[in-house]
Write a structure and sequence with these properties.
Blueprint lengths: L6 H14 L5 E8 L9 E4 L2 E3 L10 E4 L1 H7 L3 E10 L6 E9 L3
Parallel strand pairs: 1-4
Antiparallel strand pairs: 1-6, 2-3, 3-4, 5-6
Length: 104
């Protein structure tokens, strides 16, 4: 769940993933798109980052991104696959991606 937090948090997590992967190593994961029905719900704590803590004091931040922001976050990786899929819950869209750490 690397999207828990803001864009800076996500960037730091991706930098660590990049660091520990060998060149040519693969990362498979998900991100939240702005198309997700929860985008904009709750309190905005940073750009494109919301926490819905009105009913749950344990709620945490969620970062949502469009395709351009996702590509920028994954600089240093080659995106081999990138799709948006709706999960079981209607409106629960997620980016599904496979990224390869670039060589050199």
């Amino acid at each position: 769940m690397i999207y828990h937090g803001n864009a800076g948090d996500v960037g730091r997590r991706l930098a660590e993933i990049w660091r520990v992967l060998r060149p040519g190593g693969l990362y498979q994961g998900t991100m939240l798109p702005t198309r997700n029905s929860n985008y904009g719900i709750g309190r905005m704590v940073a750009p494109d980052t919301f926490v819905d803590d009105a009913n749950d004091h344990r709620a945490h931040e969620h970062y949502y991104c469009d395709a351009a922001a996702l590509v920028a976050l994954f600089a240093g990786f080659e995106l081999l696959a990138l799709t948006q899929r709706q999960q079981r819950k209607p409106g629960s869209w997620h980016w599904h991606l496979i990224a390869e750490r670039r060589r050199g």
